[in-house]
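Continuing the series of single-chain predictions for the mutant panel. This is the parent chain; the variants come on the following pages.
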Amino acid sequence: MNWGELFVYLVTATGWTFEEVEALTLPRLAELNKLWDKVPPDFVSLNEIRLMLRSYFGVKESSGESTGEPNNSDNGDLIGDLLAAGFVMT
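Parent structure:
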């Protein structure tokens, strides 16, 4: 798991500062994750639209361009990764 990327994602999604993200507990993060599965933050929805349009028009990502997908080795969900790493949700 790339913790720096997770922090940047949360700062971008919420508008919080890095200090506020550091204060976030894992149970609260789990609740945010559940909500965002149902109602993603605006920038996630816009990025999904961008990716669909690129796919529809056959536009390939350049080698230095981000796909907008999380950089996660197994593309699993965040909470699953945390639980697999031994975190306990209370």
